[in-house]
Structures are given as C-alpha cells and as structure tokens.
C-alpha cells in the first residue's frame, strides 16, 4: 500500500483556514451568546425564572436529587453550558460546598455534560438541517440527560 508523503502546510493556507473558522465563530456564535445571555439576565432580573424552579422541582429535586435552584441553572445551560458554575457562584458565592453535596455535584456535572446542546449549536443545526431536526436532537439530549442523571443518582446515593 502506498503512503502519501505528509507536507507541512503553508502558513498562508493555515491562516486562511483559521480565519474562516474564527470569522464564523465571531459572526454566528457570539451574537447568539450575547442575545441569549441578555434575555436570560432580563428574565432573571424581573423574576420570571423564579416559577421555573417550582415547575421543574419534580425533575430536579425528586428525580435528580438536586436543590430547587437548579431549575434555573438548566434554563441558563441552554444559552451556554459554562453558565452552570457561573450562575451558582453568582447566586451563592464561592462556597458551593455549603449548597451542593458531593453527590449533587456529580449529578449536576453529569446532567450538564449530557444536557441539551447550547443555543448556538441548536441554531447551527437548524441552519445546516432544519429546525425540526435541531429541536429533536435537543429534546433527545434533554431526555437522555435526565434519565441517566436520575438513574446515576439512585446508583451512587447509597454509597455516600
């Protein structure tokens, strides 16, 4: 079998490809993050997200074993998954061990990892495919994350 020789790419080609990808990020993703963040902060500031905790309590508290406040975290995770820890610190300060137990940290990290893709990914999926496919993927990820998180909570809870 013949192997092609690998050549070092030219600097101009590497810079063009890098700029193309970076430009897409700047033009497409940043506005979605900024707009989504502004909307979420506005909803939070006006108290619109407070009832979300009560609505999601059967999932967050009873199924996942998390505190009630994590309902709002799940909403913020739709904009950006990195907001999970940021919102926790903004609400409770840096002493998170007083808010979440080790099991809750594990479950929150697991669910956050498997949770719905962020808004920019869902939007990009809608552009590349269609909104129906994008929403289907988001709902499937959400259901998978909640089911696996609840099962894992029941598996590891007796050991802590």
Largest sheet: none
The poorly predicted ranges are none
Pairing-aware structural class of the strands and helices?
Answer: mainly alpha
**N-to-C order of helices and strands:** HHHHHHH
Oligomeric organization of the protein chains: single chain
Helical percentage: over 70%
Distance between the termini: 55 Å
Compute the number of structural domains: 1
Note the overall shape. Answer: globular
Structure notes:
The chain is mostly helical and 160 residues long. It has one domain (13-159). The chain is built from seven helices and no strands. The chain is globular and about 55 Å long. The relative contact order is 0.10.
Task: Briefly summarize what is shown.
With 160 residues, this protein is an all-alpha fold. It is built from 7 helices and no strands.
Describe the SSE topology:
Elements: H1 11-45, H2 50-63, H3 70-79, H4 83-92, H5 102-114, H6 119-128, H7 131-156
Helix pairs in contact: 1-6, 2-3, 3-4, 5-7, 6-7
Essential attributes:
mainly alpha
